[in-house]
Amino acid sequence: MKLNERHLMQLAAVLDAGGVSEGAAMLGLTQPAVSRSLAMLEARVGEALFLKGRRPLQATPLGFQLAAQGRTIITASRKASDAVQGFMKGTKGIVRVGGVPFFMDAMISRMIGEFQKLEPDVTVQQSYMNLPEMVAALESNQIDLGIVPIGVLDLGPGFEFTEILPGRNVVACRPDHPLLRNRRLRAHDLTSFPWVAPLPGSPLMSDLQMILMSIGMSDLNVRYSGGSLMSVINFLAETDALAVLPFSVVFAQRKENRVTVLPYEIPQPSRSLGILRRVGGPRSPAAERFAGHVTTAFENLKHIIKRHENAVIWGR
């Protein structure tokens, strides 16, 4: 026997409110309309749903069971309405974000945590990827947005890029590195120490090649490669090794005092960190809300990072 779900909802509302008029008002319906629905429901099941002569209205055993199902439907309906409203506002849902490892670990992961405090009903799914994998993931709708450093590169009309931080690289080392005692750093000073190689596929690899050319070297003494950001920081903190890192990544580690900037000017890439999206694809309100949070966070950080950069006495 198939019953009309709306009739069950109205039965539950009437019993919870104690009367037909009160239940109708609760649902935003008229009293005659609810009365007709209850009469149709009683005719359908062939049994009385209310005990006669009781005020407020009381259910028969069958009416009690059907009202329980009606309450379940009401609860599910309200949850569905809340889900729709939350999705449209971007306060509920899933954000799928891909990003380059070092930036994700140093800065974006913290912003994800801050965003989660503001929007606890949004789930963030993060993936590590460089630009080629990111473009493919956006095209196949596997991620909603990517956070990646991009230079002068035309990805075509199918993508849009929003800059959130200008690019700047530095040579990083431990705070008590011997080179920090030099009054004036020269190119050959950098070749006297071991280096950390960037992750394969990272744009930092091409940046390291630019540094090599600028100091007249064809190769460096690479002693460590393939590590995560934390493992690179740990390696630098325990050795005299050097590494090329984004300035903002070193800035994000400043409170730990395990890595610092070697004040030597190196060639800078024409590249900015930003948010990459696919044009014309489905937009997730939660993802757009997250993108706005990241953009605002970097807008607030830009000035602090710039002051920190200006405090470094750069040499060459």
Automatic annotation (TrEMBL):
<feature type="domain" description="HTH lysR-type">
    <location>
        <begin position="1"/>
        <end position="60"/>
    </location>
</feature>
<dbReference type="GO" id="GO:0003700">
    <property type="term" value="F:DNA-binding transcription factor activity"/>
</dbReference>
<dbReference type="GO" id="GO:0005829">
    <property type="term" value="C:cytosol"/>
</dbReference>
<dbReference type="InterPro" id="IPR000847">
    <property type="entry name" value="LysR_HTH_N"/>
</dbReference>
<dbReference type="InterPro" id="IPR050950">
    <property type="entry name" value="HTH-type_LysR_regulators"/>
</dbReference>
<comment type="similarity">
    <text>Belongs to the LysR transcriptional regulatory family.</text>
</comment>
<dbReference type="Pfam" id="PF00126">
    <property type="entry name" value="HTH_1"/>
</dbReference>
<protein>
    <submittedName>
        <fullName>LysR family transcriptional regulator</fullName>
    </submittedName>
</protein>
<keyword id="KW-0238">DNA-binding</keyword>
<dbReference type="GO" id="GO:0003677">
    <property type="term" value="F:DNA binding"/>
</dbReference>
<dbReference type="InterPro" id="IPR036390">
    <property type="entry name" value="WH_DNA-bd_sf"/>
</dbReference>
<dbReference type="InterPro" id="IPR036388">
    <property type="entry name" value="WH-like_DNA-bd_sf"/>
</dbReference>
<dbReference type="InterPro" id="IPR005119">
    <property type="entry name" value="LysR_subst-bd"/>
</dbReference>
<keyword id="KW-0804">Transcription</keyword>
<dbReference type="Pfam" id="PF03466">
    <property type="entry name" value="LysR_substrate"/>
</dbReference>
<keyword id="KW-0805">Transcription regulation</keyword>
